[in-house]
Structures are given as C-alpha cells and as structure tokens.
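Hello,

I think I submitted the adenosine-5'-triphosphate job twice by accident. Can you confirm which output corresponds to this input? Input:
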Amino acid sequence: MDLHIDGVTLVYPDGEQTLTAVDDVTLHVPSGETTALLGPSGSGKSSLLAVAGGLTRPTSGTVTFGDGEPVFTPTTPPDDATRVRLTRIGFVFQQPQLVPSLTALEQLELLSHLRGRKPAERRARALELLDAVGLAPWAHKRPGTLSGGQRQRVAIARALVGEPDVLLVDEPTSALDHERGTEIIELVTSLAREQDAAMLLVTHDESTLGSVHRLVHLRDGRLV
Ligand SMILES: Nc1ncnc2c1ncn2[C@@H]1O[C@H](COP(=O)(O)OP(=O)(O)OP(=O)(O)O)[C@@H](O)[C@H]1O
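Support: Only one job matched these inputs. Its output is below.
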C-alpha cells in the first residue's frame, strides 16, 4: 500500500526555545517500492521515520496509507497509533532488538501471536520467512549464538511476518561490514517488493543503495 507523508512538521521543545526537526516534508512512497532517506547527522531522518511510524505525533501534517483516512495526525490518540503500528507497520532498527531468551522462530511467532494469527499459521509463516532470509538452518538458535548479520536477518523476517503495508527501516547496516550491509539492503528491498509494502529506509551509506528505487536527501529537516 502507498505511503503518503503530507506536509509533516515536527517541532521539539528545546529549553526556552523550540527545534524544528522536520520542516514541512511531503513524500510519497509507492507500494512495493523503496525510498532511501539520506542526510547528515541531525538532519531529521529518524524524526521523520518516527512520525511515519506513529511513534511520535506530528506537530502538523498527516501520514496516510493507500487512499484511506490519515492514520497519524497531530491529534491521533496513542491507542489508535499503537494499533496501526502493530497491525500495519514493520520496523527494523539499527540494533536488531531481539528477545535474548527466544529462538529465531519464536521471535517471529511471538509477533504473529500479538497480531492475532492462529498457531498453525504462525509456525508456517515464520518458517517461510526464515527460509526467505536464508536462516532456515538457524531457526532454533537464540540471538546470543547468531552473528550480527544473522540477527539483523531475524529482525527483517520479524518485521515482515505480519504482512505490513509499510516497512520502516532505520540504519540496518550500521553494525555490519560493507559486504554484509549491501546484502541486507538488497534482501529487505526485494522482500518489501514481493510483499507490496512501501518501504522507507534511513541510511548514511549511499554505497549500499544499488537496489532502492529513489533517493531523497534531508537537510535541516527539509527535503532538498
Ligand atoms: N526527543 C528529542 N527532543 C528534542 N530534540 C530532539 C529529539 N530527538 C531528536 N532531536 C533533535 O532533532 C534533530 C533531528 O534529529 P534526528 O535524530 O531526527 O536526526 P538524524 O538525521 O536521524 O540524525 P542521525 O543520522 O545522527 O541519527 C536534531 O537536532 C536532534 O538533536
């Protein structure tokens, strides 16, 4: 489903003053495509992703999926935002943020459970995705015995397990070497395309971006 960010501004309180982290950004990511968001440190990339994912309410502007009503606005109640996050958005963060005591398979099954899937469906879907990210042989391993790249693959599979409309990915390769980083970006872009999810990817590293559809640059909170 398409992701529409329309006229989004995010202002943080900053002592006596305010700081405009995102300044009137309008961005459209078509279903099945990946847009990479580049820009120097502090330019507002993570802030824009937080608004797109309903983690932070915009000060003004809206976020809409497909041609429905806006899902995130300055007045969206927190419970509504939580429900949209759980059912329609997949997140991949810089650190995989896996549960240490759960196996790769269980990490995915837990999320499916939270999304209300039936047990038999959960297992089949989790195994299918672990296979898609090349981790079928590691399905019963816990995060402590996986490599950094393998852990990030589990996080990608987990983000996709609920068939999200929108996939939001923040610097997924910062803990990996260049070759692993390129592989991870290619993998997540191709899975998003297969599932018809609109994907917004934040990164510093332009050299890993051969597989994305569009690059946009942010500077001082504005698209340039
Ligand atoms: N919770 C917050 N409260 C106040 N100011 C914030 C908050 N989060 C971020 N900022 C400020 O907003 C601006 C944009 O930060 P943001 O983290 O979005 O940038 P970024 O482009 O993602 O940076 P990086 O590449 O270093 O992660 C910065 O000036 C930052 O200091």
